[in-house]
Amino acid sequence: MSDLKDKIVDAIDEYLEATEAWDDALLAIDTATDEVFLIEEEEVDEEADVDIYDIMDFIKMTPDGEWIRDDQAIDSVVEDYE
User: Fold this and answer.
1) Alpha-carbon distance 4 to 77, whole Å?
2) What pLDDT is attached to residue 31?
């Protein structure tokens, strides 16, 4: 399942590199293919067979005000797919 974790990390990093490019970003995991991608909230209805998570569930703020990945939250979701 480390492959799934890597895909989730990549998607979150993509979001963190350009947070302003997203209005209401969600993390989607295609349950049929294990593909992980970012999606706008308004596009969710168009996707079948995907599990959707709020991107902010995987991000935390440092005391310095920087947004970073929450690896514990990522690990928790990955465990659900094992």
Assistant:
1) 10
2) 84
Q: Is the dihedral of CA 82, 17, 33, 41 positive or negative?
A: positive
Using alpha carbons only, how large is the chain's radius of gyration in Å?
Answer: 12
Rounded Cα gap, residues 22 and 71, in angstroms: 21
pLDDT of residue 2: 73
The C-alpha angle 48, 14, 22, rounded to 5 degrees, equals: 70
What's the pLDDT at 56?
95
Question: Which positions of the chain have pLDDT values less than 70?
Answer: 1, 46-47
Name the residue among 56, 10, 50 with its Cα closest to residue 34.
Answer: 50
Phi, psi dihedrals of residue 18, rounded to the nearest 5° = -150, 60
Q: How many CB atoms lie within 10 A of CB 7?
A: 17
